Amino acid sequence: MIDIEHIESLAALRLEGEERERIRRDLEEIISYFEILNEVDTEGIEPLVFTKGVQLFLRKDEVKVSLNRQLIEKNRQLFGDGFFRVKRIIGE
Fold it and tell me: Is pTM, for the whole model, over 0.90?
């Protein structure tokens, strides 16, 4: 059974009543589709990483115009010490 409360905390969500139950059912249905893959015989089949020849698409590092720093700094709640501030979600 899926621990929907744990998923809620990881995703910083608050689900209630029927919504929580609907999400739990949907997730269980999705997982059941993946369990069907356990029935596929993969004996002797090499793992496939790339469907075509291995080719890395590299680009040159170039400085590009980005966000306007002055506009960002005006909103002190979201910006401080030269960085964007975000809500802590890891280790709660």
Answer: no
